[in-house]
Amino acid sequence: MSDKIAFELFNGNLTVTWYGIFVTCGILLAYFLYLYLASKRNIDTDFSLELFIWIVVLAIVCCRLFYVVPRKEYYPIDSWDALLRFLGLTKDGLAGLTIVGGIFGGALGILFCVLRYKRYSYAKVADCVVLCVFLGQIIGRWGNFANQELYGQIVTNPAFQKWPFAVLIDSDGLWHQALYIYEGFFNLIGLIIGLLLFFRYKKLKNFTISLYYVFWYGLVRGSLEFLKTEHKNFPNTEIGVVQVIAYSACVVAFVLMVLNQKGVIRFQSKKYNEAGDSLKMLADYDRKVVKGVVIGGQDYYTACGDETAPVFRRAGDFTLEEKRLRALVFGGRGAVFSDDPDEN
After folding, report:
1. How far apart are CA 161 and CA 167, in angstroms?
2. 108 burial via Cβ count (<10 Å: 0-12, 13-18, 19+)
3. Are residues 173 and 237 part of one domain?
4. Residues 13-32: pLDDT tens digits?
5. 148 and 216 share a domain?
6. Residue 65 falls within a domain, yes or no?
7. Are 89 and 16 in contact (CB under 8 A)?
8. Which end of the chain is more exposed for a tag (fewer CB within 10 A), N or C?
């Protein structure tokens, strides 16, 4: 049995690889982290479960497509076996995935669920998801260790011919830079910074964390390309394609992050900015006065943990735009009303 295979089932007809185990563990732990982060943003569990399914399915599909589409060895697709090999449905499984495709597929999954339910802004949900992507990448990269891939240049100094600086590759019997460890370490730092931003900076605008992820990952990915032994360069140049894409994404994301935080640009509609995410919008209901808002069976202050929330205003003080947003924010439900005109 190969060292890449953890165990076999059905007399060897089904093999479970260490790569698959690490990737699966990464996905599951990322989901549990998402549930925790989503609870802090009052995103319900039912929505989160469907979101998780769509993100995983579309991420895997796009991971595979981004890997096989540009590679000549998967063409022509002129037989059933060739199609199965292209899709990764052979005994070897999905032997070939590209993380960038997974990010793209995950973004499509978020977009689909947000448009389907129209209860949460894309920016709000994405900020919870991208931090979980960090965790999934950190754990999933250990699958590269099991497959003896994602390594860099040869390490000749005996002092560094050991883990975590280097990894011994069986194919050539040499020590190489352990790029999967490097990337995992820097992504761990990125995750810690992202969590600090998520929990400590209350004035952080939605989608800033998503842009931060693109900035950080672009910086890390572009920098590690210098250590790889093989590069895909632009024709007749020594300029790496991946480095240009990664660093360009890094710069663009940083600029957009600053502009978004300063309010120069906006990545979600005005109605979400004013009401959908703050949950401080109150509604006019037969000219009664809102007493409180129930979120998950708890009053607003308990559910949101926001002691600085303003006192609920009288219904007659709402603007026309606020009245229009009532259906969006509460869907006609979730608000407890009082007939007492003196009660706030």
Report:
1. 7
2. middle
3. yes
4. 677 788 888 888 999 999 99
5. yes
6. no
7. no
8. N
